[in-house]
Amino acid sequence: MSVAWARLRPERARGHRHLLTGSAVLVAGAAIQALSGAVFWLVAAKLDLEVDVGSAGKLFTSVLFVTYLAGLGLPVALARYAADRSPDADVTFTWASIATVAAAVVAAIVYVELIPLSATKVLTDWHPVFGPLLFSLAVAGAALSMIVDVRCMTARRWNLVMVRISVVGLVRFPMLFLFRDHEHRALWLFVYAVGPLALSGLAGAALAPRAAGGGHRLGPRPPTTGLAVRYSAVNYVSTLAYQAPYFALPVIVLANVSAETYASFNVAWGIVAVAFYVPTALGQALLAEGGRDGAHVHAQVRLALGIALGLMLVGAATAFVFSDVVETVYGPEYRQAARVLPAMIAAGVPWAVTSLYLSEARILHRHVATVTITGVLTAAILAPAALLVPGDGIDGASRAWLIGNLAAAAVAVVAIQLSRWRAGSRAGGADRDPSLAEPAIAADAAEVGITLAEPSV
What is the 3-state secondary structure (H, E, C) of the chain? Predict the structure, then answer.
Protein backbone atom coordinates (compact mmCIF):
# COMPACT_ATOMS: atom_id res chain seq x y z
CA MET A 1 0.00 0.00 0.00
CA SER A 2 2.82 2.41 0.88
CA VAL A 3 4.47 1.83 -2.51
CA ALA A 4 1.21 2.42 -4.35
CA TRP A 5 0.54 5.58 -2.34
CA ALA A 6 4.06 6.87 -3.03
CA ARG A 7 3.40 6.62 -6.74
CA LEU A 8 0.28 8.75 -6.35
CA ARG A 9 1.75 11.49 -4.18
CA PRO A 10 1.22 15.00 -5.60
CA GLU A 11 4.92 15.84 -5.65
CA ARG A 12 5.68 12.65 -7.61
CA ALA A 13 2.93 13.49 -10.10
CA ARG A 14 4.37 16.96 -10.53
CA GLY A 15 7.76 15.42 -11.24
CA HIS A 16 6.23 13.26 -13.94
CA ARG A 17 4.48 16.28 -15.39
CA HIS A 18 7.78 18.16 -15.72
CA LEU A 19 9.47 15.13 -17.22
CA LEU A 20 6.72 14.58 -19.78
CA THR A 21 6.52 18.28 -20.60
CA GLY A 22 10.26 18.43 -21.18
CA SER A 23 10.24 15.29 -23.31
CA ALA A 24 7.39 16.62 -25.44
CA VAL A 25 9.15 19.95 -25.99
CA LEU A 26 12.39 18.26 -26.96
CA VAL A 27 10.66 15.90 -29.37
CA ALA A 28 8.81 18.80 -30.99
CA GLY A 29 12.00 20.85 -31.12
CA ALA A 30 13.95 18.08 -32.82
CA ALA A 31 11.17 17.67 -35.39
CA ILE A 32 11.27 21.41 -36.15
CA GLN A 33 15.06 21.27 -36.52
CA ALA A 34 15.01 18.33 -38.90
CA LEU A 35 12.15 19.54 -41.06
CA SER A 36 13.27 23.17 -41.28
CA GLY A 37 16.77 22.04 -42.21
CA ALA A 38 15.49 19.75 -44.96
CA VAL A 39 13.21 22.46 -46.38
CA PHE A 40 16.01 25.05 -46.23
CA TRP A 41 18.26 22.96 -48.44
CA LEU A 42 15.33 22.19 -50.74
CA VAL A 43 14.69 25.89 -51.31
CA ALA A 44 18.42 26.50 -51.78
CA ALA A 45 18.54 23.74 -54.38
CA LYS A 46 15.73 25.40 -56.32
CA LEU A 47 17.31 28.88 -56.20
CA ASP A 48 21.04 28.24 -56.61
CA LEU A 49 23.59 26.29 -58.58
CA GLU A 50 24.29 22.75 -57.45
CA VAL A 51 27.98 23.52 -56.93
CA ASP A 52 27.19 26.43 -54.58
CA VAL A 53 24.65 24.39 -52.61
CA GLY A 54 27.12 21.52 -52.35
CA SER A 55 29.96 23.75 -51.17
CA ALA A 56 27.75 25.42 -48.56
CA GLY A 57 26.49 22.01 -47.45
CA LYS A 58 30.07 20.82 -47.01
CA LEU A 59 30.87 23.80 -44.81
CA PHE A 60 27.74 23.39 -42.74
CA THR A 61 28.47 19.69 -42.26
CA SER A 62 31.98 20.66 -41.18
CA VAL A 63 30.55 22.98 -38.51
CA LEU A 64 28.37 20.19 -37.13
CA PHE A 65 31.31 17.78 -37.12
CA VAL A 66 33.66 20.15 -35.30
CA THR A 67 30.89 21.08 -32.85
CA TYR A 68 30.45 17.39 -32.14
CA LEU A 69 34.19 17.05 -31.45
CA ALA A 70 34.30 20.17 -29.27
CA GLY A 71 31.39 19.25 -26.98
CA LEU A 72 33.63 17.98 -24.15
CA GLY A 73 30.65 16.24 -22.58
CA LEU A 74 29.67 19.53 -20.97
CA PRO A 75 25.97 19.52 -21.95
CA VAL A 76 25.44 16.23 -20.10
CA ALA A 77 27.47 17.42 -17.11
CA LEU A 78 25.44 20.64 -16.92
CA ALA A 79 22.21 18.68 -16.94
CA ARG A 80 23.50 16.71 -13.97
CA TYR A 81 25.43 19.31 -11.93
CA ALA A 82 23.73 22.61 -12.84
CA ALA A 83 20.16 21.39 -12.61
CA ASP A 84 18.78 24.18 -10.42
CA ARG A 85 18.81 27.96 -10.04
CA SER A 86 21.52 28.14 -7.40
CA PRO A 87 24.68 30.30 -7.52
CA ASP A 88 26.72 27.09 -7.92
CA ALA A 89 24.77 26.31 -11.09
CA ASP A 90 25.56 29.80 -12.41
CA VAL A 91 29.27 29.28 -11.75
CA THR A 92 29.23 25.89 -13.45
CA PHE A 93 27.44 27.30 -16.50
CA THR A 94 29.83 30.26 -16.78
CA TRP A 95 32.93 28.07 -16.78
CA ALA A 96 31.26 25.57 -19.12
CA SER A 97 30.62 28.44 -21.57
CA ILE A 98 34.26 29.53 -21.40
CA ALA A 99 35.50 25.97 -21.90
CA THR A 100 33.07 25.43 -24.79
CA VAL A 101 34.22 28.53 -26.66
CA ALA A 102 37.89 27.69 -26.13
CA ALA A 103 37.48 24.09 -27.30
CA ALA A 104 35.37 25.16 -30.28
CA VAL A 105 37.85 27.76 -31.49
CA VAL A 106 40.83 25.42 -31.15
CA ALA A 107 39.03 22.55 -32.87
CA ALA A 108 37.82 24.83 -35.68
CA ILE A 109 41.27 26.24 -36.38
CA VAL A 110 42.82 22.77 -36.36
CA TYR A 111 40.13 21.53 -38.75
CA VAL A 112 40.63 24.39 -41.21
CA GLU A 113 44.41 24.28 -41.09
CA LEU A 114 45.02 20.52 -41.03
CA ILE A 115 42.24 19.31 -43.33
CA PRO A 116 42.67 21.13 -46.66
CA LEU A 117 39.28 20.21 -48.12
CA SER A 118 37.36 21.94 -50.87
CA ALA A 119 34.90 23.00 -48.16
CA THR A 120 37.45 25.04 -46.26
CA LYS A 121 38.78 26.44 -49.54
CA VAL A 122 35.54 28.43 -49.80
CA LEU A 123 36.53 30.18 -46.58
CA THR A 124 40.10 30.97 -47.54
CA ASP A 125 39.11 32.07 -51.06
CA TRP A 126 36.91 34.70 -49.46
CA HIS A 127 39.61 35.82 -47.00
CA PRO A 128 42.64 33.91 -45.67
CA VAL A 129 42.14 35.25 -42.12
CA PHE A 130 38.52 36.25 -41.70
CA GLY A 131 37.28 33.06 -43.41
CA PRO A 132 38.71 30.72 -40.75
CA LEU A 133 37.65 33.18 -38.03
CA LEU A 134 34.09 33.09 -39.38
CA PHE A 135 34.18 29.30 -39.24
CA SER A 136 35.48 29.39 -35.65
CA LEU A 137 32.72 31.80 -34.63
CA ALA A 138 30.11 29.53 -36.22
CA VAL A 139 31.41 26.48 -34.34
CA ALA A 140 31.56 28.37 -31.03
CA GLY A 141 27.99 29.62 -31.44
CA ALA A 142 26.68 26.18 -32.43
CA ALA A 143 28.41 24.58 -29.44
CA LEU A 144 27.04 27.22 -27.07
CA SER A 145 23.51 26.66 -28.36
CA MET A 146 23.59 23.15 -26.89
CA ILE A 147 24.51 24.20 -23.36
CA VAL A 148 22.12 27.16 -23.53
CA ASP A 149 19.26 24.75 -24.20
CA VAL A 150 20.37 22.61 -21.27
CA ARG A 151 20.47 25.62 -18.92
CA CYS A 152 16.97 26.64 -19.98
CA MET A 153 15.71 23.08 -19.60
CA THR A 154 17.10 22.66 -16.10
CA ALA A 155 15.44 25.98 -15.18
CA ARG A 156 12.25 24.60 -16.76
CA ARG A 157 12.10 27.44 -19.24
CA TRP A 158 10.89 25.13 -22.01
CA ASN A 159 9.30 28.02 -23.88
CA LEU A 160 12.71 29.59 -24.44
CA VAL A 161 14.05 26.37 -25.93
CA MET A 162 11.16 26.22 -28.40
CA VAL A 163 11.48 29.91 -29.27
CA ARG A 164 15.19 29.54 -30.02
CA ILE A 165 14.71 26.45 -32.17
CA SER A 166 11.76 27.93 -34.05
CA VAL A 167 13.45 31.27 -34.74
CA VAL A 168 16.59 29.55 -36.00
CA GLY A 169 14.50 27.34 -38.27
CA LEU A 170 12.44 30.16 -39.75
CA VAL A 171 14.72 33.19 -40.01
CA ARG A 172 17.04 31.49 -42.51
CA PHE A 173 14.49 31.30 -45.31
CA PRO A 174 14.15 34.97 -46.27
CA MET A 175 17.94 35.28 -46.24
CA LEU A 176 18.15 32.92 -49.22
CA PHE A 177 16.92 35.73 -51.46
CA LEU A 178 19.78 38.07 -50.52
CA PHE A 179 22.98 38.45 -52.61
CA ARG A 180 21.87 35.83 -55.10
CA ASP A 181 24.41 36.93 -57.74
CA HIS A 182 27.33 37.42 -55.38
CA GLU A 183 30.64 35.91 -56.48
CA HIS A 184 30.94 34.16 -53.10
CA ARG A 185 27.40 32.79 -53.16
CA ALA A 186 28.47 29.46 -51.57
CA LEU A 187 29.86 31.36 -48.58
CA TRP A 188 26.64 33.35 -48.22
CA LEU A 189 24.57 30.16 -48.31
CA PHE A 190 26.75 28.81 -45.52
CA VAL A 191 26.22 32.02 -43.51
CA TYR A 192 22.46 31.77 -43.98
CA ALA A 193 22.47 28.13 -42.84
CA VAL A 194 24.65 28.51 -39.78
CA GLY A 195 24.36 32.20 -38.87
CA PRO A 196 21.05 32.10 -36.97
CA LEU A 197 22.16 28.98 -35.09
CA ALA A 198 25.48 30.52 -34.07
CA LEU A 199 23.94 33.85 -33.08
CA SER A 200 21.29 32.10 -30.99
CA GLY A 201 24.05 30.29 -29.11
CA LEU A 202 26.12 33.42 -28.50
CA ALA A 203 23.13 35.51 -27.42
CA GLY A 204 21.71 32.65 -25.38
CA ALA A 205 24.97 32.18 -23.48
CA ALA A 206 24.77 35.83 -22.44
CA LEU A 207 21.11 35.69 -21.41
CA ALA A 208 20.51 32.11 -20.20
CA PRO A 209 21.70 32.68 -16.60
CA ARG A 210 19.22 35.56 -16.27
CA ALA A 211 16.46 33.31 -17.62
CA ALA A 212 17.35 30.90 -14.80
CA GLY A 213 17.04 33.71 -12.25
CA GLY A 214 20.76 34.24 -11.76
CA GLY A 215 23.74 35.65 -13.62
CA HIS A 216 27.29 34.93 -14.73
CA ARG A 217 29.61 34.02 -11.87
CA LEU A 218 33.26 32.94 -11.82
CA GLY A 219 33.26 31.86 -8.17
CA PRO A 220 33.25 30.54 -5.59
CA ARG A 221 34.11 27.08 -6.86
CA PRO A 222 31.20 24.63 -6.36
CA PRO A 223 31.96 21.56 -4.20
CA THR A 224 30.84 19.28 -7.06
CA THR A 225 33.38 20.68 -9.57
CA GLY A 226 35.60 17.61 -9.54
CA LEU A 227 32.65 15.27 -9.96
CA ALA A 228 31.28 17.40 -12.81
CA VAL A 229 34.61 17.35 -14.66
CA ARG A 230 34.95 13.57 -14.37
CA TYR A 231 31.32 13.05 -15.37
CA SER A 232 31.84 15.34 -18.37
CA ALA A 233 34.90 13.38 -19.51
CA VAL A 234 33.17 10.01 -19.25
CA ASN A 235 30.10 11.18 -21.13
CA TYR A 236 32.25 12.91 -23.75
CA VAL A 237 33.80 9.57 -24.69
CA SER A 238 30.46 7.75 -24.76
CA THR A 239 28.79 10.51 -26.78
CA LEU A 240 31.62 10.52 -29.32
CA ALA A 241 31.19 6.78 -29.81
CA TYR A 242 27.41 6.88 -30.06
CA GLN A 243 27.15 9.79 -32.49
CA ALA A 244 30.27 9.15 -34.56
CA PRO A 245 28.50 7.59 -37.57
CA TYR A 246 26.02 10.44 -37.88
CA PHE A 247 28.67 13.16 -37.85
CA ALA A 248 31.67 11.37 -39.39
CA LEU A 249 30.05 9.72 -42.42
CA PRO A 250 29.19 13.07 -44.11
CA VAL A 251 32.77 14.23 -43.51
CA ILE A 252 34.13 11.09 -45.17
CA VAL A 253 31.85 11.81 -48.11
CA LEU A 254 32.69 15.50 -48.44
CA ALA A 255 36.40 14.67 -48.38
CA ASN A 256 36.04 12.34 -51.37
CA VAL A 257 33.40 13.79 -53.72
CA SER A 258 32.85 16.99 -55.67
CA ALA A 259 30.61 19.79 -54.46
CA GLU A 260 27.96 18.81 -57.03
CA THR A 261 27.91 15.21 -55.85
CA TYR A 262 27.84 16.27 -52.22
CA ALA A 263 24.79 18.43 -52.93
CA SER A 264 22.94 15.23 -53.90
CA PHE A 265 24.21 13.42 -50.82
CA ASN A 266 23.15 16.33 -48.61
CA VAL A 267 19.61 16.13 -49.97
CA ALA A 268 19.42 12.39 -49.33
CA TRP A 269 21.03 12.79 -45.90
CA GLY A 270 18.49 15.43 -44.90
CA ILE A 271 15.63 13.07 -45.77
CA VAL A 272 17.33 10.21 -43.94
CA ALA A 273 17.75 12.40 -40.83
CA VAL A 274 14.02 13.08 -40.74
CA ALA A 275 13.16 9.39 -41.24
CA PHE A 276 15.69 8.12 -38.68
CA TYR A 277 14.30 10.56 -36.18
CA VAL A 278 11.20 8.35 -35.74
CA PRO A 279 12.88 5.44 -33.90
CA THR A 280 15.25 7.88 -32.22
CA ALA A 281 12.32 9.82 -30.75
CA LEU A 282 10.69 6.59 -29.59
CA GLY A 283 13.96 5.60 -27.97
CA GLN A 284 14.20 8.94 -26.19
CA ALA A 285 10.62 8.62 -24.95
CA LEU A 286 11.47 5.12 -23.74
CA LEU A 287 14.46 6.51 -21.86
CA ALA A 288 12.35 9.22 -20.30
CA GLU A 289 9.65 6.81 -19.18
CA GLY A 290 11.82 3.78 -18.40
CA GLY A 291 9.06 1.90 -16.64
CA ARG A 292 8.68 4.56 -13.95
CA ASP A 293 4.99 3.86 -13.45
CA GLY A 294 5.43 0.17 -12.80
CA ALA A 295 5.21 -1.05 -16.39
CA HIS A 296 7.77 -3.62 -17.47
CA VAL A 297 10.67 -2.29 -19.53
CA HIS A 298 10.56 -5.32 -21.83
CA ALA A 299 6.88 -4.71 -22.57
CA GLN A 300 7.58 -1.06 -23.27
CA VAL A 301 10.42 -2.01 -25.62
CA ARG A 302 8.21 -4.48 -27.48
CA LEU A 303 5.52 -1.84 -27.97
CA ALA A 304 7.96 0.84 -29.11
CA LEU A 305 9.76 -1.63 -31.37
CA GLY A 306 6.52 -2.70 -33.04
CA ILE A 307 5.60 0.92 -33.75
CA ALA A 308 9.08 1.84 -34.98
CA LEU A 309 9.47 -1.19 -37.23
CA GLY A 310 6.05 -0.66 -38.75
CA LEU A 311 6.74 2.99 -39.53
CA MET A 312 10.25 2.36 -40.89
CA LEU A 313 9.04 -0.49 -43.12
CA VAL A 314 6.43 1.84 -44.57
CA GLY A 315 9.11 4.51 -45.04
CA ALA A 316 11.46 2.06 -46.76
CA ALA A 317 8.73 0.88 -49.13
CA THR A 318 7.76 4.47 -49.90
CA ALA A 319 11.36 5.46 -50.62
CA PHE A 320 11.77 2.46 -52.94
CA VAL A 321 8.58 3.14 -54.92
CA PHE A 322 8.69 6.94 -55.00
CA SER A 323 12.42 7.71 -55.02
CA ASP A 324 12.05 9.43 -58.41
CA VAL A 325 10.02 12.14 -56.69
CA VAL A 326 13.30 13.50 -55.31
CA GLU A 327 14.56 14.18 -58.82
CA THR A 328 11.21 15.67 -59.78
CA VAL A 329 11.20 18.05 -56.81
CA TYR A 330 14.87 19.00 -56.73
CA GLY A 331 15.67 18.75 -60.42
CA PRO A 332 17.65 16.38 -62.68
CA GLU A 333 20.94 17.50 -61.10
CA TYR A 334 19.92 15.55 -57.98
CA ARG A 335 19.26 12.18 -59.56
CA GLN A 336 22.09 10.68 -57.50
CA ALA A 337 20.11 11.48 -54.37
CA ALA A 338 17.15 9.55 -55.75
CA ARG A 339 19.45 6.61 -56.52
CA VAL A 340 20.96 6.21 -53.04
CA LEU A 341 17.90 7.17 -51.00
CA PRO A 342 16.07 3.78 -50.94
CA ALA A 343 19.03 1.90 -49.42
CA MET A 344 19.70 4.65 -46.89
CA ILE A 345 16.07 4.77 -45.77
CA ALA A 346 15.94 0.95 -45.65
CA ALA A 347 18.74 1.12 -43.06
CA GLY A 348 16.15 2.68 -40.77
CA VAL A 349 14.57 -0.75 -40.21
CA PRO A 350 17.64 -2.21 -38.45
CA TRP A 351 18.26 1.19 -36.86
CA ALA A 352 14.88 0.89 -35.13
CA VAL A 353 16.07 -2.35 -33.53
CA THR A 354 19.44 -0.90 -32.54
CA SER A 355 18.17 2.36 -31.08
CA LEU A 356 15.40 0.81 -28.98
CA TYR A 357 17.51 -2.06 -27.67
CA LEU A 358 20.19 0.48 -26.84
CA SER A 359 17.61 2.43 -24.85
CA GLU A 360 16.76 -0.71 -22.90
CA ALA A 361 20.42 -1.33 -22.13
CA ARG A 362 20.91 2.23 -20.90
CA ILE A 363 17.73 2.25 -18.78
CA LEU A 364 18.79 -0.92 -16.98
CA HIS A 365 22.46 0.14 -16.67
CA ARG A 366 23.67 -2.79 -18.77
CA HIS A 367 26.96 -1.16 -19.65
CA VAL A 368 28.53 -4.10 -21.50
CA ALA A 369 25.60 -4.24 -23.90
CA THR A 370 25.65 -0.43 -24.31
CA VAL A 371 29.35 -0.31 -25.14
CA THR A 372 29.11 -3.31 -27.45
CA ILE A 373 26.19 -1.92 -29.44
CA THR A 374 27.61 1.59 -29.83
CA GLY A 375 31.08 0.27 -30.68
CA VAL A 376 29.80 -2.04 -33.39
CA LEU A 377 27.51 0.67 -34.79
CA THR A 378 30.44 3.06 -35.19
CA ALA A 379 32.94 0.55 -36.59
CA ALA A 380 30.48 -1.23 -38.89
CA ILE A 381 29.52 2.03 -40.61
CA LEU A 382 32.73 4.04 -40.69
CA ALA A 383 35.15 1.23 -41.63
CA PRO A 384 33.21 0.22 -44.79
CA ALA A 385 32.67 3.91 -45.59
CA ALA A 386 36.41 4.60 -45.46
CA LEU A 387 36.94 1.76 -47.93
CA LEU A 388 33.97 2.28 -50.25
CA VAL A 389 33.47 6.04 -50.52
CA PRO A 390 36.84 6.90 -52.17
CA GLY A 391 36.05 4.59 -55.08
CA ASP A 392 32.27 4.58 -55.25
CA GLY A 393 31.32 8.01 -53.93
CA ILE A 394 27.90 8.40 -52.36
CA ASP A 395 26.87 4.94 -53.58
CA GLY A 396 29.62 3.56 -51.34
CA ALA A 397 28.36 5.71 -48.46
CA SER A 398 24.85 4.37 -48.99
CA ARG A 399 26.04 0.76 -48.89
CA ALA A 400 28.20 1.40 -45.81
CA TRP A 401 25.24 2.99 -44.04
CA LEU A 402 23.02 -0.01 -44.77
CA ILE A 403 25.68 -2.64 -43.97
CA GLY A 404 26.66 -0.96 -40.72
CA ASN A 405 23.11 -0.62 -39.48
CA LEU A 406 22.35 -4.26 -40.31
CA ALA A 407 25.46 -5.42 -38.42
CA ALA A 408 24.67 -3.21 -35.42
CA ALA A 409 21.08 -4.50 -35.25
CA ALA A 410 22.26 -8.12 -35.31
CA VAL A 411 24.73 -7.44 -32.50
CA ALA A 412 22.08 -5.51 -30.54
CA VAL A 413 19.69 -8.48 -30.65
CA VAL A 414 22.38 -10.86 -29.39
CA ALA A 415 23.70 -8.43 -26.75
CA ILE A 416 20.27 -7.69 -25.32
CA GLN A 417 19.22 -11.33 -25.22
CA LEU A 418 22.43 -12.21 -23.37
CA SER A 419 21.99 -9.34 -20.94
CA ARG A 420 18.38 -10.35 -20.29
CA TRP A 421 19.44 -13.94 -19.66
CA ARG A 422 22.16 -12.87 -17.23
CA ALA A 423 19.85 -10.45 -15.43
CA GLY A 424 17.17 -13.13 -15.20
CA SER A 425 19.66 -15.59 -13.75
CA ARG A 426 20.74 -13.10 -11.09
CA ALA A 427 17.29 -11.78 -10.19
CA GLY A 428 15.23 -14.92 -10.57
CA GLY A 429 13.63 -13.74 -13.82
CA ALA A 430 12.66 -10.27 -12.61
CA ASP A 431 12.19 -7.77 -15.39
CA ARG A 432 14.29 -5.14 -13.70
CA ASP A 433 15.86 -4.15 -10.43
CA PRO A 434 13.68 -1.35 -8.99
CA SER A 435 16.58 -0.01 -6.98
CA LEU A 436 18.48 0.76 -10.18
CA ALA A 437 15.60 2.15 -12.22
CA GLU A 438 15.42 5.67 -10.89
CA PRO A 439 19.19 6.47 -11.05
CA ALA A 440 19.41 5.04 -14.54
CA ILE A 441 16.58 7.22 -15.72
CA ALA A 442 17.88 10.30 -13.96
CA ALA A 443 21.21 10.06 -15.74
CA ASP A 444 19.92 9.05 -19.12
CA ALA A 445 16.97 11.42 -19.22
CA ALA A 446 19.47 14.23 -18.97
CA GLU A 447 21.31 12.81 -21.95
CA VAL A 448 18.02 12.66 -23.85
CA GLY A 449 17.90 16.41 -23.78
CA ILE A 450 21.46 16.64 -25.07
CA THR A 451 20.84 14.33 -27.98
CA LEU A 452 17.77 16.21 -29.11
CA ALA A 453 19.40 19.57 -28.62
CA GLU A 454 22.12 18.94 -31.19
CA PRO A 455 22.40 21.55 -33.95
CA SER A 456 19.99 20.82 -36.77
CA VAL A 457 20.78 19.61 -40.25
Answer: CHHHHHHHCHHHHHHHHHHHHHHHHHHHHHHHHHHHHHHHHHHHHHHCCHHHHHHHHHHHHHHHHHHHHCCCCHHHHHHHHCCCCCHHHHHHHHHHHHHHHHHHHHHHHHHHHHCCCHHHHHHHHHCCCHHHHHHHHHHHHHHHHHHHHHHHHHCCCHHHHHHHHHHHHHHHHHHCCCCCCCCCHHHHHHHHHHHHHHHHHHHHHHHHHHHCCCCCCCCCCCCCHHHHHHHHHHHHHHHHHHHHHHHHHHHHHHCCCCHHHHHHHHHHHHHHHHHHHHHHHHHHHHHHHCCCCCCCHHHHHHHHHHHHHHHHHHHHHHHHHHCHHHHHHHCHHHHHHHHHHHHHHHCHHHHHHHHHHHHHHHHCCCHHHHHHHHHHHHHHHHHHHHHHHHHHCHHHHHHHHHHHHHHHHHHHHHHHHHHHHHHHHHHCCCCCCHHHHHHHHHHHHHHHHHHHCCCCC
